[in-house]
Design a protein that fits this description.
The complex is a heterodimer of chains A (504) and B (289). Chain A has 504 residues and is an all-alpha fold. Among the domains of chain A are: 93 residues, no CATH class; 85 residues; 76 residues, no CATH class. Chain A has 24 helices and no strands. In chain A, α9 runs antiparallel to α10 and α16 packs antiparallel against α17. Chain A is globular and about 75 Å long. The relative contact order of chain A is 0.04. Chain B has 13 helices and no strands. Chain B is globular. Classes of the chains: A mainly alpha (504), B mainly alpha (289). At the A-B interface, α1 of A face α3 of B. Chain A: InterPro entries: TPR-like_helical_dom_sf. Chain A: This is Tetratricopeptide repeat protein.
């Protein structure tokens, strides 16, 4: 009996040692990935100054972390320390894939995602992340059915949650996105079937706890889905019900005006009369003077007035947005650009020019400000004023080069580079424009934007430079990078045809 | 017989008080080459070092068996993760160090006081360690009492609305300054309790009462001696409150390094404080004769 009693604490100690060994292993894994992340962040401060070899080394370091901590015979159930260690290993592979992606090594990226799907498929969060990323890659390549399947698989793996990072935070959008892709590939009679899974998914979440952000967003998606299928009454009544629900909540996760603005979107898509949609927008501003979407509502009102031929009314709406000192940058800059275009269309160029010149001063970091120099060029081109167009082109080139020298790489810099290539092409500097487009297209490799830039570069090489060999080489690159898509196959065929027409 | 200043008038003027405090420190510094006096304090430092090593070792094979339960106890399950362990390290170390100070630090302080007293010419008996051990219950309770009072005072800072301290740097530093003054005053009131217990054989309450009396009669030199020690500690306690910043800018392990330096500084400061307090105490006793 005494022996048995002695065995109990010994067994407890042995069990706790086992747990502690696991916790110690997790601590080591966390430390190693933290140190690798630290190095990644340090290198990311000036990525252009870091050699490719250094990035490859870091990716190798992440992969070795994954190798060290992924290989347990028993994967462990979610929520256990063992599962935590496996999640760290999966994160390390994600990081390695991200680096290889930045190095444009798409083969290695594919291999790593395959590995993740195989090894960590039992961890829902990781499996969802992998499916999500692979879905994005497939979508970027234009492989819509594969992307839809991957998105649906991600949505099946994790429950949506509002305001969290990772797959759970974005998964609610995926069924609708997947349905739209399936619908685009399906025939006219099969559209409803394409949306069936998504509708069931959103209905399930719309029946969740009232007032929860996911429940509210699921209702919005249901309305969007109904609008996609042309069920306009169903869509608007769902949004009106949602607006009433949001108004009744003490702390609604969305402002009720967002539901009303979505009603306007449905009415617009349904092609209802401009007067009716205007009434919806006016009513929205009257009922919700503190609406956070006021800028967008005013933009919509301006567009509505412009379509009704009421230029002064449209300008008033646009001026209200631009006059808002703390308004959002996107709405403010778009308002100024829309103002300039409206004035230009109605022969009031000096005022339009004033708005365009104001754009980079008031909203230097906006897509509209980057569009402004080209707008000036296009105006003079339309007016057949060659001298003014040349001067505007020279100014636009200076503006874009200044922007690229002043601001770090990022989404706006990519737009500036695209505009610069356009400006160079319009100036007749096709060689330089072509180089910039190819560079940009390769940096965006895997995305539809990258493909269209490379195709535009190939056309420029063929038509403007009469350089068939160069055009064929660019098309071959499109074929290599987008081989699984119709664009890639077309590019390969076209490159072969071009090579065939070239003199031996 | 105590060498040096023999006049024991109530010291309330700054310059003479500073002179007395410097005199007390000089006496302690003069004894810094005697390893025997360092020994009890080095014992506590070794324990603190071992504690720090243990707290930072949940991933080290052999030590993790002890380290992980300790980390869980002091910092919760979250502290077993990296780098949260290092964010929680100052708090965990502080909690464990309180227990260490009350149990081992108090006895080591008693032994060091006896060794200093003997070096200053006081007949402290043959075996200071045995004498300190015999007084352990009183030393532990007095130290625990002092620490409890200091913690209670530190909790007063939470009464200031967080919004005020966040908005105003002046309020923030004002609160810090006021807390520092309060802590110095309370520590000064209790600083002679150990000497009363080990040198005069007092019980807990008489030791506390008479410590307050000695402090009252040696107010400024005591406040200066304790205050300078507290100021030497301040940069480390200030840095410990900014671990997120340190770990964010540097590496989390730097926090362990910071605590290791703090342990070293604490050893030096404790040596000086115990030496100075013992000298001041004996000087006051001499004057009272």
């Amino acid at each position: 009996m005494r022996g048995v009693l002695l065995l109990v604490p010994l067994a407890l100690l042995a069990a706790s040692c086992g747990t502690d060994r696991e916790a110690g292993r997790r601590h080591r894994a966390e430390r190693e990935i933290w140190r690798a992340d630290w190095e990644y962040q340090s290198l990311s401060l000036r990525p252009e100054a870091v050699s490719e070899e250094r990035w490859t080394d870091l990716a190798g370091r992440y992969e070795s972390i994954a190798e060290r901590y992924a290989g347990t015979p028993d994967p462990g159930t979610p929520g256990t320390i063992r599962a935590d260690v496996q999640t760290i290993a999966a994160r390390a592979l994600f990081a390695a894939a991200r680096i290889h992606g930045a190095l444009r090594d798409s083969n290695r990226v594919e291999i790593l995602y395959e590995k993740m799907a195989g090894r960590f498929g039992h961890l829902p969060d990781v499996a969802a992340e992998v499916a999500l990323v692979r879905g994005r890659i497939a979508e970027g390549r234009g492989d819509r059915l594969a992307a839809a399947e991957l998105y649906e698989s991600a949505a099946d793996r994790v429950e949506p949650r509002a305001g969290v990072a990772g797959a759970a935070g974005v998964v609610l959008d995926l069924p609708l996105r997947a349905a739209r892709m399936r619908a685009a590939e399906a025939g006219e009679g099969q559209r409803e079937a394409a949306y069936r899974t998504a509708r069931a998914y959103y209905r399930r979440h719309a029946a969740g706890p009232p007032g929860d952000a996911v429940q509210v967003d699921a209702q919005v998606r249901l309305a969007e889905l109904a609008a996609d299928l042309g069920e306009w009454d169903e869509a608007t009544s769902a949004l009106h019900r949602l607006e009433a629900q949001l108004r009744g909540l003490d702390e609604p996760p969305r402002h009720p005006c967002e539901a009303r603005f979505a009603v306007y979107g449905v009415q617009n898509r349904a092609g209802l009369s401009l007067d009716l949609t205007r009434q919806t927008l006016i009513g929205l501003l009257e009922d919700y003077p503190d609406c956070p979407l006021a800028g967008q509502v005013l933009l919509a009102l301006a567009s509505n007035a412009s379509r009704r031929g009421r230029v002064d009314e449209a300008l008033q709406h646009l001026d209200r947005i631009a006059a808002e000192p703390r308004g959002d940058v996107e709405a403010g800059s778009q308002a100024l650009l829309a103002r300039a275009r409206l004035l230009d269309r109605h022969g009031r160029w000096p005022e339009a020019l004033e708005s365009l010149r104001m754009l980079p001063i008031r909203f230097p970091l906006s897509t509209a400000a980057l569009q402004a120099p080209l707008e000036i060029v296009l105006h003079h081109a339309r007016e057949d004023d060659e001298e003014a167009a040349r001067a505007a082109l020279a100014q636009a080139e200076r503006d874009y080069r200044d922007f690229l020298a002043r601001y770090p790489p990022g989404p706006l810099a990519l737009i500036a580079r695209e505009h610069l290539a356009q400006t160079l092409a319009l100036s007749g500097e096709h060689d330089e424009a072509l180089d910039e487009m190819v560079r940009l297209g390769e940096e965006l490799s895997g995305s539809s934007k990258g493909a269209s830039l490379l195709l535009a570069a190939a056309r420029m090489a063929y038509e403007d430079l009469a350089d068939t060999a160069r055009a064929a080489a660019i098309l071959e690159r499109v074929g290599d990078a987008y081989g699984q898509t119709s664009v890639g196959r077309w590019a390969t065929g076209e490159a072969t045809r071009m090579r065939g027409t070239m003199a031996p | 017989m105590i060498r040096g200043r023999r006049e024991g008038k109530n010291i309330v003027n700054w310059f003479p008080s500073l002179g007395v405090a410097v005199w007390a420190w000089r006496g302690a510094i003069a004894l810094s080459r005697r390893p025997a006096i360092w020994l009890p304090l080095l014992g506590v430092t070794a324990l603190q070092g071992a504690l720090l090593l243990l707290l930072t070792s949940p991933h080290r094979g052999g030590l993790s068996v002890l380290a992980l339960p300790l980390v869980r106890l002091l910092g919760g399950e979250a502290a077993t993760h990296y780098p949260i362990l290092y964010y929680a390290l100052p708090t965990m170390f502080f909690r464990a160090n309180l227990v260490l100070s009350a149990l081992a630090g108090s006895i080591a302080g008693g032994a060091a006081t006896l060794l200093f007293a003997r070096a200053f010419g006081y007949d402290a008996g043959r075996s200071p360690y045995r004498r300190a051990w015999r007084s352990a219950p009183a030393l532990i309770v007095t130290t625990a009492l002092t620490l409890g009072l200091l913690l209670g005072l530190a909790a007063l800072a939470t009464l200031v609305p967080g919004e005020w301290t966040l908005r105003s740097g002046a309020v923030r530093w004002g609160v810090r300054g006021a807390m520092m003054v309060l802590l110095i005053v309370v520590q000064s009131l209790f600083v002679y309790a150990t000497a009363w217990i080990v040198l005069k054989g007092h019980g807990i309450w008489p030791a506390v009462r008479d410590s307050v009396r000695v402090t009252a009669r040696t107010l400024l030199p005591t406040l200066i001696a304790v205050g300078v020690s507290a100021l030497l500690h301040f940069p480390f306690s200030f840095a410990s409150g900014r671990v997120d910043l340190i770990a964010g800018k540097l590496k989390p392990e730097v926090i362990a390094g910071l605590l290791a330096v703090q342990i070293g500084v604490q050893l030096l400061v404790t040596f000086l404080l115990v030496g100075a307090a013992t000298r001041l105490f004996l000087w006051r006793m001499e004057a009272n004769r």
